[in-house]
Design a protein that fits this description.
Layout: H1 2-17, E1 20-23, E2 40-42, E3 50-52, E4 58-62, E5 73-77, E6 84-85, H2 88-100, E7 104-109, H3 124-138, H4 140-143, E8 150-155, H5 157-167, E9 177-180, H6 197-202, H7 208-213, E10 227-232, H8 241-252, E11 257-262, E12 272-273, E13 278-279, H9 281-290
Parallel strand pairs: 5-7, 5-8, 8-9, 9-10, 10-11
Antiparallel strand pairs: 1-4, 2-3, 3-6, 4-7, 12-13
Length: 301
């Protein structure tokens, strides 16, 4: 009874915050096998809801009450090691903050790993992200979005997903990215022993070629979009070297980038680093403004 009540409260909270929930695909998603839907919501020790067994991906829209004059949009990709999604603190709460700042926000509930649910899982999350980007482009006029200012924000494994989208030679690249304690590299030296991200996506024994192919820091070019990175030095799930490696590659290729390093904070602090008593969103908005993706004055509707 308690778990049912928690789910009902979560659904009610979503209805208050989100204007529209859109399925990514009509019918069975490409690459999926016909399995029974079995999404499971849970409340871990930190009290924030997560969801696993996602086989029907969606895009949830958060419209600002007063849109910023930049007409910027951000697609938020929650983390969870590709096994589950921290959909509340790494999704809906962030989208609500962006909308409060005048930015049109979307939360991508991409497919997570589930046994016997896919023909080949490793490229499924990227496929969902690209589909979400195309949906935002297609609805840009409807939501009053500037297609030159559509960015991505990813947490943890969602950061890996976003960084790959920024460095792949296929698909639509974002205008900018924001990466919060991201898993970037799948190389042995930068992969934490406690991280499940690489193993979930590539299996227990990936080849050297696979590790390289799925390590975005090795594929940065001058065409890679600008990035704002946030990570704590004491992060044991995604080693701080991930953000440093990606930032260094961006700087080497003269791509605008900023790296916000916290001495303490660990992994999974979402919007607020309790260890240092700081919200990072104000700094992210300043960075967006510095790079022409945000304006101080809101648009008059």
């Amino acid at each position: 009874m308690k778990s049912i009540l928690s789910i009902l409260i979560l659904l009610f909270t979503r209805s208050l915050q989100a204007q529209e929930v859109m399925p990514l695909y009509a019918g069975l998603a490409p690459g999926s096998l016909p399995v029974k839907e079995n999404e499971i919501f849970s409340r871990p020790e930190n009290g924030r809801h997560t969801v696993r067994n996602v086989t029907k991906p969606t895009l949830t829209l958060f419209l600002p009450a007063r849109q910023n004059a930049s007409h910027t949009a951000v697609i938020v990709c929650p983390g969870g090691g590709y096994l589950n999604l921290s959909i509340e603190d790494g999704g809906y709460e962030v989208a609500k903050e962006l909308a409060a700042a005048g930015i049109t926000a979307f939360v991508l509930k991409y497919r997570t790993w589930r046994d016997s649910a896919y023909t080949r899982y490793r490229d499924i999350p990227q496929q969902d992200l690209q589909q979400a980007v195309q949906m935002v482009y297609a609805g840009a006029s409807r939501w009053n979005i500037d297609t030159a200012r559509i960015g991505l924000l990813g947490f943890s494994a969602g950061g890996h997903l976003v960084a790959r989208a920024a460095t792949l030679n296929t698909g639509t690249r974002p205008a900018f990215t924001m990466l919060v304690y991201p898993v970037i590299s799948f190389t042995d030296g930068l992969t934490s022993k406690t991280s499940k991200t690489r193993g979930t996506l590539l299996g227990a024994q990936p080849t050297a070629q696979e590790k390289e192919a799925y390590s975005p820091e090795l594929h940065v070019t001058p065409a890679t979009p600008p990035a704002f990175l946030i990570q704590a030095e004491d992060d044991s799930t995604s080693l701080v070297g991930n953000s440093i490696a990606y930032y260094s590659a961006l700087v080497a290729n003269r791509v605008p980038a900023q790296l916000l390093l916290y001495q303490k904070g660990g992994h999974g602090f979402a919007l607020y680093n309790k260890a240092q008593k700081e919200y990072w969103m104000p700094q992210a908005l300043k960075w967006l403004a510095l790079n022409g993706f945000y304006r101080d004055q809101a648009a008059k509707n």
